[in-house]
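Key idea: predict the complex, not the pieces.
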Amino acid sequence: MEQAEVMLDLLFYIFSAIAVAGALGVIVNKNPVTSAFCLIAAFIGLAALFIQLDAYLVGIIQILVYGGAVMVLFLFIIMLMDMASEERRRFGLGAVAAGLLVSVVFVVQLLRVLGDYSPGSKVLGVLPADAATDVEQIGKLMFTQYYFPVQVVGVLLLIATIGVIVLSKRELK
Amino acid sequence: MEVTLNHFLFVSGLLFAIGLAGVLVRRNVIVIFMCLELMLSAANLSLVAFSRFNLTESGGPDYNAQVFLFFIITVAAAEVAVGLAIIVALYRAKQTTDVTQINSMKN
Amino acid sequence: MTLLEAIIAIPIVAALAIAFGSPTRPTAMAAAAINLLLILMAFAQYDLSVEGVYQLAGSHPIITVPSVEQPGAQSILLGLSTGVDGISLVLLLLTGLVTLAAVWVSPAEDQIKGSKRLYYLSSLLISAGALGAFCSTDLFFFFAFHELALIPTFLMIGIFGSGPNRVRVAWKMTIYLGVGSMILLAGLVALFVALGGQSLQFGDLQGWANAPAAIASASLENGIFLTLLIGFGILVSLFPFHTWAPEAYATAPTPTAMLHAGVLKKFGLYGLIRIALPMLPNGAAHWQTLLLVLLVGNILYVGYVTMAQKRFDLMLGNSSVMHMGYAFLGIASLNVIGVQGAVLLMFAHGISIALLFALNGHLRKRFGTLEFDRIGGGLGKLLPTLGLLFGFAIMASIGLPGFANFAAEVMIFFGGFAGLYSQQEGIVIGPVQIATMCAIWGVVISAVYGLRAYRNLFMGPLPDSSKERKLVDLTLAERLPLILLIVALLVIGCAPGLLIKYLIPSIENISHLAG
Amino acid sequence: MPAYYLEIIVVVLGLTVLMVETFVSLRDKRSLGWLAILGLLVVLVLNFTVVETGGEGGNTPFWSFYVMDIPAQWFKGLALLATIFVILMSVDFSRVLSKGICPEVEDDGVDDCAENQVALSEFFALPIFICAGMMWMASAHHLVSIFVALETVTIGFYVIVAFMRRNVGSLEAGVKYLILGALSTGFLVYGFAWLFGVTGEMELGAIADALNAPDVHRTGALFAFALILIALCFKIGAVPFQIWIPDVYQGAPMPVTAFLSVGSKAAGFVILLRLLEPFMASEMLNANVTSVLVIIAAATILFGNLAALPQTNFKRLLAYSSVSHAGFLLMAVASAPAHPGVVSPVAAVSYYLAAYLMMTMLAFLIMNLIRVQRGDENLEAYKGLAKSSPFLAFAMLVAMASLAGVPLTAGFVGKFWVFVLALQEKHYYLVAFGVIGAAAGFYYYLKIVKSMYWDSPADAGSSAAVPVVVAWPTRIAIVLLVVGVFYFGVNPGALLSLFL
Amino acid sequence: MEEQNLPWIILLLPLLSAVSILLFTRRSGNISALISTGSALITLLLGVVLLRMPDDAVVAAFPWLNLSSNFVVEIGFQIDQLSRGMMFVVTAIGAAVHVFSLAYMKDDEGKARYFAGLSFFMFSMTGIVFANNFVMMFVFWELVGFSSYVLIGHWFEKNSAADAAKKAFLTNRIGDFGFMIGILLVWGLTKSIYFTQIASEVVDEQVLEGVSNGLLMAMVLCVFCGAIGKSAQVPLHVWLPDAMEGPTPVSALIHAATMVAAGVYMLARISFLIPMSAGAGEVIAWIGAITALIAALMALQQDDIKRILAYSTLSQLGYMVMAVGIHAADAAMFHLFTHAFFKALLFLGSGAVIYACHHEQNIWKMGGLAKKMPITFVTFVIGTAALMGLPFVTSGFFSKEAILGAALHGHKALFVIAAFIVLLTAFYMTRLIVVAFLGKDRSDNAAKAKEVPALMWVPLVLLAVPSVVAGYEFFYKGMKLSPMSPAHEGPVNVWLIVISAAMLVFGIGMAFWGYRGESTEPMRLNRIAQVFAHKFYIDEAYAWLIKVFQDGLAAFTNFFDRAVLDGVIARLPAAGAFRLGSVMRRLQSGNLQSYGFLFGLGAVLIIYLVVFK
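Result:
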């Protein structure tokens, strides 16, 4: 095995670990701000995995939209609120047990599915060099094939805009 | 160990499960919301992994999935916006973000 | 619009008219009277020489599908089809008579507490439901029309019922019948599916059922029959699903009790005869013993329950349950004589129980109670006309010859013994014969409680409490509807052939029945 | 006229409502509602008249996302109708709505003053946009278009459920719906990812082919199906994902509840039908898929009907009722197509949903009036209604009878075909559950009838004895619905023949 | 008048009378009485004419009930010696009773009802007599029961009358229970219900060949059950004494002469069936004998004049049934024929006495009536003599000898019992005459008694004649009645006469010696006499049985129905559904966290079900 490939595999484990650790950090930290930062870490780990999967544009968008815009929004809202009381709050024992139970069972089920999923044993190969870049491909698809969903999403965003205005405008009268 | 599709799928599923656990465990509605976003992203990882491994005839990844992913991210962002607006409104009305405090309707 | 459609439509139109402000009692009376006339016209137009088809038929196709038998043509899957044979004609007559009497005995407007419009409208709708069910030759509408009566009955008992338990009783009856009709629906749909799922028309269904091995497996056929038996059984208060009936009838306002116990309840029996017997002959044979056990429960068990009643209305309710056992016996004997007897009994019992409930209403109006102990007896001297008519009614219900009930019971008993001796199998005293003997003992039981009731109400010395009451005997207007019913019972009792000549061809047409 | 014009017109209509409000000074903003209703009626007529159906349209990529077949046309019609009734209700509801957004609004009893009508135009516009989303859902035939359309609707509902942002109930409902809705979206996306992964396709036709191919991976496909099913069960409110329904229905503004229970459910079912079709068609997956659907259907029927029994809040009762109807609909869905009969599951579900729309809207229209004029959603408020407002009481009686499945109403026909389908597939136990559920239904639907007809108002002098005022458009709507319930109950062919 | 219509007229005229009274003259007792009596007299006339009707006369039948297209139950007529003779008895006694009633019921409030009832009874009884098939017989069987109910309960304000009416009807219903089963068995086995058809099939074609004896016996005995009820045989005899609560003319007509004899008539009609089963006749004979014996014993200690006669009737009916059982149906019919006259006479005589004594029925409060009511006394004595069977001068002698003779030929044990009953009969009738008619009056009512009006004593006299002569051959041959078959004619057995005469004398002597001059019952305190007086405590036993078994069963089923069955079938599922609903509702805790948990749980569950199951 070439060293580059070993390196790539190693990177997979590193980024996966970052993502998983970040995700765990989100749920174990009492402070929402810390949680938010952990989430950013998880998103960055995810973005790295995307890039490893040769989805450069997606990875970058992931960092920009999630790690950037969305998380800023979250932090902004957290800051708006008084989070002092959050610190004192304890986890409910039942809730923890319930969460553990459900997610462990889910992971076990997933493992069994994956164990059975033969196509999943494909090894991550190298893409042919002559393939067009993903930006070009995605852009082309988006605006030649997917123009209908794009327009629908436009309406969706319109709804969201109106909704946010209606819900948060201080004085409507 | 060589990295296979299943590796990515497992990480994706694990993140999804962690997100799910977070939704169930946490009481702060904002953190819950974060966990939901995490779940979405985790699902995205599966999508990208499948895209990368379901090679098209030309040998490249199936970019349809990546296009889909753009829509998912867009929708998720919109959802975050609306969701946070609702949470803020709730906070204004009830001065709390604890989901166990919002249970005026039951049975 | 065919004659039958008019018969169904008239009460509905009259009910609508009442809802929109037409004078209540005159409208209802007119509708009932016109309907009775139309039903008699239907008898006149019915051609006895034509066999094996529904007559006076009309059809409005609603869903048509490409025909299975004739490629290219369309056949009716679902349609508002009407038609009658002898069996339905007889039941139409029953409905017409009881409806007229029920509207007639309805109290004058000022005596109804609550909405008068609702009162008369409900009666008419119940009647329309029964008429529709008896005329329909489409499984869907056959079922649907019967259910039309559910809500009016619920409202009538709940609003106008008597007694402190009316709420509970109305609920119980409605839920019970709701369960029953849902089970029935499942059974009917299963039958429709099992017979190919291509048509809901009786004619087509029967045609397919007549084909050899029409239903894929015996267990399926048995299952469908059992479902239908339970479904119809609940509606007819087959033991052990009978506990809704006595209280409901005791509580219901008089016209509702008359229509429900007299007419609507017959729907279940009609359904068994019209659908279950001819279309599922093997299922019928398979469950014959079970049905016999249950109907003996109706006759003996409920008979003894009836005997223990201390209130006249409850006694009537129970007795009506008990007598259903005889109709079931006629059906369970699986031969032409028994089934004819069952239909005749449906007619006779319908009229006689309606008559008894009408009298029950008169007693309730005069005493406010129906407990034997509190009335105390001795009314014969004080209310001679009521006593006389009451005597007729009681005698009819305990099967005195001359009343239609007797003729019907005799037919049923003969049906039960028709299979006693055959050249092939020799002599068999089988379950049917044993059940028949139990049923004959039931005649004794019904005489016991019938005569006890008459004894406790009308005979013996007059207690002081009654002397103080200003009791008025029946007025002429009150008598007429009762006399109408009594005359019907007597005419059919003395000349049952008047109806049987319509029944015989139709019932002999049900293949698989022993001759 | 190509079908996609319909949605465009609807979106433009929504924008028009917003624009008019912004640029025209209105004395009474409720006239915007009439404008919206008028516009939607036009679209409704167009939908069933000039729009071309069935054609593939062309080879443009558009037609891989969008189909216009009979079910699509049908569900577009349902969406439009539901929206029309919802806006009609919103007009009546405007006063309560304004109080819910801005409690400081002067309660001078004047409804028709623009100053007192807070955010009313948005409350008209959002359902119109959501309606467009539902119409897209009806036509969606591609994972992406399904997802986008579905989320358009879902996000729209997040907003309008929480619309009364000063009303705790509305907000609470909004949060619950948001969290659980987002959770289900997560499962949906995850499921779509797997479906794409297993089949390599995103267009439903291609997916069907892929699933039918011998080399499809069974476990993977089933896993994808399970994840998608979880999300869709949430949308339609099937057990065990019905949990949000009672709370959200109770908290949401009345017209929104109606919209949720009719529109959202119908849209959920159309997606469910579309996504199920490839799985059901695959012989390898069929058995598993069917068996789980049967279990879900049985549980849903049982839960919906039994949990409704002790309920005294009418709105909440209708929520449980909505769960139970989802169960009956699932009965039909679970009965695809091993033994094709005359009526297909799609036809049965379509008919059922149309009937459900009529009867539920009827109930909500009346409930809305009572809520606005008597301020009460409990059964108490209905006591003696038959005396004070016999017309409304009768209409409610019809609605309840139809919901309960009393024959000669549209609701019965729906149940009838559902039973036919289930028995065709020999789902005998499921039918048994259906029987139990339907019988229990008699109790709680008639409970309302009992309140209206048997009981007298708790205190005679109170508002309960005053007749409820019914504006003429609402009155017309009620009359039309009552007639419709009966007409389609007696003549089901009028609707069903579209599918035959 | 067409001869073929004659039976129809005899049948329908009384019905017409009853219906017209019901419909039109209900309020006028006198007109009703006249209508009814008129119809009775006309039917008597027609009944006599009928005696001339040939056996093969064809009378149009009315198809009453078409059981199927080839099986019709007719209202048809079987005109033969048996029915003609019976018809004569019925119409003759009916006419006498009608006339007697005109006086007896003169001032009764319910006179119209009474006469309607009488007419209806005449109609029903005629139906039984003419019946040519089992079902028709059953129809009229029930109708006589109904008219009996109406007439026993004529004074329904009296609790005792009301109860007696009910008891009579119900006891008969129990008998009819068996009768109906019997009819069904006959029909099931022979596929016919017509007497002549069955007779020919049974005898000529032997359709019952191969049918097990048990079944045949069941068939015969079930039919016999009808007779047990109607003819008040043990164990269903209890209603007849109580039926004396009815007006006395009714007792004479229905409960002495005609209706109660219908059982015997029916047995005679179907007597061809009895030999079909070995042992059935034996059972019938023994039941008859036991009835005759215990009824005679009970009669010994009764104080009510009508009850003594009632038990006497029971006893005589037992005689007749016994005769049928030993295959001497013609002897039974002969006795029925003679008994009808003298028992009607006795009852009407007792009616006259009761009328004269202002409705006093206790013989110990009478006494000395012989002088005050000579006509009544003489006719009563004639009746008594006939009942005892005074040799050679009374009709009862001949018929009783016929039965005794048959018993002597057939069954010695039965003969002993029958002979003993002669003694008992002589004893209790002598006791009656001695106490009621001789000696001194023992009450005011008796003291004020005087002879009854002519309307009452004329029927007595008229009945006294056949009581004497009906046994003579010239009479019944002349009337074309001829109940005796040649087999039993011929020389009279001397020993028979000696034994029965000895018994007779012994009985009369003992009673005369024991009761002459007594003013109270001398054996009142005797244990055995107590048992007789209390009718062997059978009524008490029945009352206990009914209370424990019937009413107890009823109460139990009622309780079970409400508490258990309703609970299991209705209340429990309803409560269960409600409870389950409440439990399910509790899942809706309102807590988002638990909702999330349920969602997750549901998700893994669905995944499990879809993927792993």
